[in-house]
Amino acid sequence: MTDSSMIGKVEKAHRYAEEKDRFEFLTFTVRVRGDNGEYLVTYDHGQWTCNSEYFDKHGCDSHTMAVERLLDGMLFEPKKALA
Q1: What is the pTM for the complete model shown?
Q2: Distance (Å, whole) CA 10 – CA 2
């Protein structure tokens, strides 16, 4: 790739990164360093999981809520996809 071509790609990447609505996370796993240890949060097409005891009992926890807040507007929403 020529230097001018790469410059154009970098500029395009910067523009894309500023436009969050271009992205939609479908599935991922992220490690969250909580106050009491590290936890694995997984998102898969609208379904959250976390390996914390609290999540096992309640179906959500501070780790999943933090990741959801971090990626606000960028997560796949099954109801939206069906519309």
Answers
A1: 0.81
A2: 12
Neighbours of 49 (CB within 10 A): 15
Tell me the pLDDT tens digit for each residue of 9-43: 999 999 999 999 999 999 999 999 999 999 999 99
Specify the amino acid at residue 67.
V
Beta bridge partners of 27: 44
**DSSP, residue by residue, 33-73:** EETTEEEEEEEETTEEEESSHHHHHHS--HHHHHHHHHTTT
Please report where in the chains the tokens 């790739």 appear, as a residue: 1
Give the residue from 45, 83, 81, 47 showing the smallest Cα distance to 64: 47
Which residues, at least 6 apart from 12, have a Cβ–Cβ distance to it below 8 Å? none
Q: How many other CB atoms are there within 10 angstroms of residue 50's CB atom?
A: 24
